[in-house]
Amino acid sequence: MSFRNLTCLGLLAPVLLCAQSLADFEKRVTEFTLKNGMHFLVMERHESPTVAFHAHVNAGAANDPANASSTAHMFEHMIGKGTASLGSKNFALEQKALAAVEVAYDKLEEERRRERRADKAQIERLEAGLKKAIEEADKFVEQNAFTREIEKNGGVGFNASTGLDTTNYFYSLPSNRTELWFALQSEWFRQPVFREFYKERDVVREERRMRVESSAQGKLIEALLTTAFTAHPYRNFIGWASDIENLRAKGAAEFHKTYYVPANVTISIVGDVNPAQIKLWAEKYYGPIPAGPLPPRLYTTEPPQNGEKRVTVDTEAQPFIAIAYHRPEGTHPDDPAIAVLDGILSSGRTGKLNRELVEEKKLALGADTGATFPSGKYPNLFIVFMVPNAGKTVEDLEKAWDELIEKMKKDPIDEAAVKRVKTKLRAGFISGLDSNSGLARQMAESHVALGSWKKVFTELEELEKVTSADVKRVLNTYLTKKNRTVAYSIQVKPEGK
Amino acid sequence: MRTLLTLFAVAAIAFSQPAHKLLKYPKLGEVKIPEIETFTLPNGMKVFLLENHNLPLINGIALVRTGTLLEPADKTGVHIIAAGTMRTGGTKAKTGDQLDEQLEAIAAGVESSIDETLASVSFNCLKENTDEVLGVFHDVLTGPEFRQNKIDLLKMQYRSAIGRRYDDAGEVNNAEFSDTVYGKDTPFGRSIEYETLDRIQREDLIAFHKRYYFPANVRLAIQGDFDKAAMRARLEQIFANWTVQQQPVPEFPKVTHVAKPGIYVGDKKEVNQTSFSIGHLGGLLSDKDYPALEVLSDILGGSFDSRLFRKVRTEMGLAYSVGAGWGAGYLNPGLFRISGSTKAESTVLTFQTIQKEVERIRTEPVTDQELNDAKEKVVNSFVFNFDRPSKTLSRLFRYEYYGYPKDFLFTYQKALAAVTKQDILRVAKQYIQPEKFVYVAITNTDQLKTPLSELKLPITQLELKVKEPKKEVSAADPASLAKGKALLARMQQAMGGADKLAAIKDVVMSNKAELGPMKVNQKVQLLLPDKVRQEQELPFGKVIAAFDGKSGFLVAPGAPGPQPMPAPVLKQVGDELFAMLVTLLQSDKIAGRTVNAVGDNRIEITDGGGKAAKLEMDPATGLPAKLIVEAMGPQGKMEVERQFSDWKDVNGVKFAHKTVILQGGKPAGTTISETITTNTGVSLEEIMKK
Asked: Which residues of B touch A348 (CB under 8 A)?
């Protein structure tokens, strides 16, 4: 009993702290769901007259339709294009012009579908017609009016991101302008406008050039994912060039209709706000959005892997190697143990990869692991990414990694390391509570991915229960050759030199 | 039913009008500016404290007045290596690894870093570990031990990083633009190279710390969950004994370079996009026109609604990223830079579009709306400068370090509110100078549909090639140098004596070499110190290589007569000549060479220009047993080892008549010398006979 008291008073202070934080946070959090199903999390923080908004949509690139990868991402880009009331010189006429664009595009597609029997001259005429229709619609555009409105009202950090499982829209405002966020964001959620869609498509195409086609690392990661996943849409890294070049506004609209139903959206608001007022505004601005059925579930499950997979990518850049092992979804009971394993391998300077591969054997310039890649809602990958030192090869690193893992499987797991990792994960969590925007994101994510915003706190308790035996078990279960994909780049001389 | 109807009515109102235009905003709540306590410790160190009890955390940072701008050119990187190893190399009490274990066990951190004009040592921890972590912080700041293993590790990592320098187009674009504008031979634009890295020794790092890390040159800021009085007392106590003094540190150098305007092209065949930067030097934060320039660059390319963003991204769909910024520094001018990326084929179009936008902002006043939006943005977002107490502390701390007034942010905001359209036009004309623009384009030139020459600007090719790695050199100190000299003398003695070696003018050898499956007859004529002719009979014919000390030629079957030696062969011949035993053993008489003991029986000889060889003595005979050099193989750097045996006397000097060659530890060949003669009188004409 005395021992118990001792731990509570001193050694386990961070755990106590989390329990306290949760109690303290609960007092400051207001949670409510509108009739249409949209969920709100509001946390009061009055330290400064600012507020952070985070809108979280429970759909992402994994939900892209077949033949149209990057639809979720493309739709996300429409946030910058505004609404009926912001971004148009004459919305009624613009709507007609935008409809005409789709009609012209349909005609062109109809002819193209005739494939070899298509009439080339007719295609050229239809292409010209489409171009003209787009120019016509562009005449009504008041460019970037939506973002300008946010910026001139003091909005900071305006951005959006599309992940495989989720899409997020976020920024902060001075707190006296809270209602502006409601007005702008709700109108867009209800009725996005597919203004300048086909130009934005070029922008998304440039984004792929930047992130994948002109990046050695991007190419390697894309090859890794498409090899590791045979069936599951996590194989979709950033969408295919040919899909992007043919995306249609009506496809994006369909995506919005299916996935942006209120019950699939979670909003979190953190800062200098009055929850009662927030609730009134939520009812006023978001209440009228009609409810809709929750989107279809994603059934495709990755079949078990029957043997090691390998893939290589030629590049002019110095080589890299990535090895990825299938692991279960984020809500699986093994998740905390995998997080600890990840920490033992690569957290800080004491991580095994740094100690052994970087410092002792001097094989790697850098090495890192990730417990959850590319996303966590569905079974995903535990990944190690290593950069060989000059004069060392990817083969050297693969061998060293294998030796390290096999040795870990045999030897006892270092208890001190397990403890250290848990402490660090807890401390990292506490520092993450500092910013309004970070907290808003965490709360929304936790509500959707784990079922409650409180889980960000209780997860830490799960972490505390992880033993070295658990770490060993997940190591033996998941980090096997049969269960993995090895991807590395091979340095080649530039062509034509 | 009624409720439902009302609801619909509300909905109709909410969406039939532009709701945001009807909004009335209440007055913004009060901005709390936290109170910061400042004082100077008895040893001269300035301290800034800010209590912040939001979370049970404490963090602090010490700024030290130094920077990479103060590095000597021939040791570029020395301050980076020093700042890095200050922490990893440990303290007197603990190795860096022990510190890692100690700090990570309590989720704390102590780090050291440096940039151009400041160095820092920082810490962060949970409240309950404050004393322990402050202790480590003190030890790292005041008494780093710079253990050799971590110096070697960091130097090696930088070597690897140099090798990867040109791999990422975006990074290359950033670095090349900055270095080109500031000047690649200036402290602002220099890069760490293999040679400068090799020259960095532990003594340099110790000297760096001694010179710059003294109390009067350090400012410390701490914020978090503590009591100010208690913290002050604690600091007075732990820094009581740190009283070292030094001369004030020198001024930082000024930017003087004038970059040649025009296009600088770096070719990368594997990209399909151009990463670009366009611009020239920017200015200082203290310039009176800085607020107007900020508004100008914001309108031109600073936001999601800037002219460049609108034109290049929104309207033309040419780029995912495009933007512009007026770079202003505290002490030295920043960079005015327009940057982005576009598919290679639209490079010229994008540049022309940007040129037009630059011209427009220099010739026409901005619109009222643009000016108002830009101002409103700054005024309305001003509160975010104070959304966390730590922001106020770090701002005031920087102002103090760089000698800026405390109220700089407020004066700036006031000046910005007063900026007029005329001001913007004036500063645009005065400060944005298209005729001075440096354009950097990292691209795949095969995919540029329109050639860059269309832009009618001078074009310079950027060489995106890593300078070949020089051999890694072991650390030398007086003791190892003395020992090196002694080992060399013993080997000279065993070979026949220094005088006999010095008397050799030429060597002629007939060898039978086995290189893998190939048997080769070789005749080698060596006119010391640096002229050589080698004739080899290979299965496909005779190959002659001749070298006169500067250039040479090759004769090979099938080739139409003698061909000048290409650069890689010249380099190879130079390396071979350097590694000739007869000359290598006389390194003590050759200017610029260093002979350093790197083991009980091993010396390393370097020529200061990147050549290096290790020579191992057979302790029984005193004769050289092995010679090890590094060469580039297909897999990168590789060790080549020659093992000597079958020593026979030639005119009073011992020569090895058998040499076994290993590459990367694997047998690669054997050379048997059938005859070796010296001082034959061979002439330069004979060597260079075609």
From this structure: 100, 104
Separation between Cα atoms, residue A291 and residue A299, nearest integer Å: 24
Q: How many CB pairs under 8 A join A and B?
A: 259
The superfamily (CATH) of domain A32-88+141-286 is Metalloenzyme, LuxS/M16 peptidase-like (3.30.830.10)
Using a CB-CB cut-off of 8 Å, the residues of chain B touching A388 are: 160
Residue for token pair 């000390």: B549
Which residues of chain B have a CB within 8 Å of the CB of A426?
Answer: 107
| Domain residue extents for chain B | 37-238, 262-462, 478-687
Neighbours of A22 (CB within 10 A): 17
Nearest CA in chain B to A86: B18
Contacts of residue B100 in chain A, CB cutoff 8 Å? 348-350
Please state the ipTM of this predicted complex: 0.87
What CATH architecture applies to the domain B478-687? Clam (2.50)
pLDDT digit string, tens, across residues A199-208: 999 989 988 9
Residue B559, C-beta contacts closer than 8 angstroms, at least 6 positions apart = none
Strand order in the sheet with A484-491: A309-315, A484-491, A321-327, A380-388, A364-373
The structure's pTM equals 0.77
SS3 A167: strand
Scan for tokens 């613009």, then name that residue.
Answer: A94
The tens digit of pLDDT for each residue in B482-509 reads: 888 889 999 999 989 988 888 999 999 9
CB B299, CB A153: distance < 8 Å: no
What's the rounded Cα separation, in Å, for the pair A334 and A326? Answer: 13
Q: Are B238 and B138 in contact (CB under 8 A)?
A: yes
- Residue reference for tokens 């020395």: B78
Neighbours of A4 (CB within 10 A): 8
Alpha-carbon distance B432 to nearest alpha carbon in chain A (angstroms): 25
B94 touches A at CB < 8 Å: no
B188 phi and psi angles, rounded to 5 deg: -85, -20
Cα of A125 to nearest chain B Cα, Å: 22
Q: Bridge partners of B323?
A: B339
DSSP per residue, A342-398: HHHHHSTTTSHIIIIIIIIS--EEEEEEEEEES-SSSSEEEEEEEEEPTT--HHHHH
Closest CA to A161 of A47, A236, A268, A238: A238
CATH code of the domain made up of B37-238: 3.30.830.10
Contact between B381 and A174 using a beta-carbon 8 Å cutoff: yes
Q: With H, G, I as helix, E, B as strand and everything else as coil, classify residue B99.
A: helix
- The pLDDT confidence band at residue B473, using thresholds 50, 70 and 90, is low
Q: If you classify domain B262-462 with CATH, what class do you get?
A: alpha beta
Region A309-491: CATH code:
3.30.830.10
Is-same-fold flag (B37-238; B478-687)? no
Q: Find, among A205, A126, A187, A154, the residue nearest to A52 by Cα.
A: A154
pLDDT tens digits, A53-108: 999 999 999 999 999 999 999 999 999 899 999 999 999 999 999 999 999 999 99
DSSP code per residue over B209-248: HHHH-SGGGEEEEEEESS-HHHHHHHHHHHTTT-----PP
A174 exposure class (CB count in 10 Å sphere: 0-12, 13-18, 19+): buried
**Which residue, A392, A384, A383, is CA-closest to A362?**
A392
Chain A's closest residue to B33, CA to CA, is A48
Cβ of B273 and A210 within 8 Å? yes
Q: Do B318 and A190 touch (CB under 8 A)?
A: no
Parse chain A into domains and list their residue ranges.
Answer: 32-88+141-286, 309-491
* Encoded tokens for B116: 């151009």
